[in-house]
Specification:
alpha+beta; Nucleoside Triphosphate Pyrophosphohydrolase; 3 helices; globular
Length: 148
């Protein structure tokens, strides 16, 4: 049996104290998450997070820092996730772009609103990333290397 973790990327995008989240349908539940998704073959982590933000929010995204690397074991499935979360700037929104399958829309919530919706967060990593961002955690992008 071959085991591997799910490698994912996520984006922290903040405007006027509010965080950009997506509402998505997961197994017949509507949950909140940062714009996020899986790393695809032949893609760098930075390319992946830019693609996921665009697909899920219709915003272009420019990463400016690595927030952190998060490890999560999902109790419902037993799957292991390794999430690379990036901080960055959003720009060039295309309101006519269709959003990714399962994404119902986007919303801007502050930390209190996110914490209040704890039972509707895709995983505990959502609030943890928000808290790390508010605590000022940042790592330079040059610590994320691709290729040799």
């Amino acid at each position: 049996m071959f085991w591997y973790p799910h490698v994912t990327v996520a984006a922290i995008i903040v405007e006027e104290g509010r965080f950009l989240l997506v509402e998505e349908t997961i197994v017949d539940r509507i949950l909140f998450n940062q714009p996020a998704g899986h790393l695809e073959e032949h893609e760098t982590l930075l390319e992946a997070v830019q693609r996921e933000v665009l697909e899920e929010t219709a915003w272009q995204f420019t990463p400016t820092a690595l927030l952190g690397v998060y490890h999560y074991l999902a109790p419902s499935s037993g799957s292991t996730y390794v999430r690379f979360c990036f901080v960055g700037e959003h720009h060039d929104h295309n309101p006519h772009q269709a959003l990714d399958t399962g994404i119902l829309g986007t919303c801007w919530l502050n930390r209190e609103e996110i914490a209040t919706a704890a039972d509707r967060l895709r995983s505990p990593m959502v609030l943890r990333c928000v808290d790390d961002y508010l605590a000022g955690v940042r790592y330079p992008l040059d610590c994320v290397r691709s290729g040799w």
